[in-house]
Amino acid sequence: MIERMTHAEITHPKITHPSSIVVGVDGSASSRGAIRWAAEYADASGHTLVLMHAGVASGTTLSDAVNLRSGRSSSSHARARSTLATAQVVAQSVARDSLAIETVLESERPTQALTEYAVTARLIVLGSHDQGRFARAVFGSVSTVVASNARCPIVVVPETYTPADTAADAPVVVGLDRSPRDDAVLHAAFDQAARLRVGVHVVHACEQVDAGAVFSEVVERAPHMDPAAATKRWLDERVGSWAQKYPSVQVSTTIVQDFPSRALLGCSHDAQLVVVGARSRGSIPPLVMGSTSRAVLHHTKIPTMIVPAA
Prior knowledge:
It is a single chain. The chain is built from 13 helices and eleven strands. The chain has helices at residues 7-10, 29-45, 62-69, 75-93, 110-117, 133-139, 143-149, 182-196, 211-221, 227-245, 260-268, 285-288, 291-299; strands at 2-4, 21-24, 49-53, 101-105, 123-127, 154-157, 172-176, 200-206, 251-257, 273-277, 304-307. Strands 1-4-3-2-5-6-11-10-7-8-9 form an eleven-stranded mixed sheet, sandwiched between helices.
């Protein structure tokens, strides 16, 4: 294990391995669920697991300065070290001894630290309980700052989730909405399904048939084509290219006239992961995470992956 806990390192966050799996650790029950999920992922994929605790006092008070000079940790640092030590035990309980684990303390706020790590990490994993400080970074008003700048997917694990809740062969569910980010979302979904050795279930839902979205295709292919048939053709073609790249992954699709969030949540009951897209980076923060993504995050009982725009 590599521990980066010196005062100098606290203020200069670095990831030793840029493709690490980073978990936000805050001592809550929700973060322990995130640690387990991330440890299993890192163990299976061969990536380094980074357990990161943020918001640690930087020792600016007189008592902290005295403690640091005398070689004693301040109480906040002691609690943070204890939290990370517990997190490491949780990670090791579900992974092999060969799993590389780093524990890191950061002085920045969780939102700022997560944003910095999300630039180079392979994956950010967070717990979803409202009481967790990392969860608030996702669900609170500042959450979209992280989502808007993230260059890697973010996985949110519900506090009550355990792998035993889902069948080992349960599929990965992914939602498409005819946006430029569909390929990035499909790539992430197929990659996860291949890792888990399960299928992908692709869901496209809309409140009503969007004639405008398929008009050009109808005109080009067949003037009398049913808009629903045109939508199915679009979905089959979009998914087909990824199915060819992942021949071992079985694919199923659903087109339904319904609220996208309700359709995804319905399909998630028999799945082990939901994959949705975030809106493009740099857009107005409240709009980065759309209503569908927010609804799925708040109500699903299984982990949700938010994929940034390519």
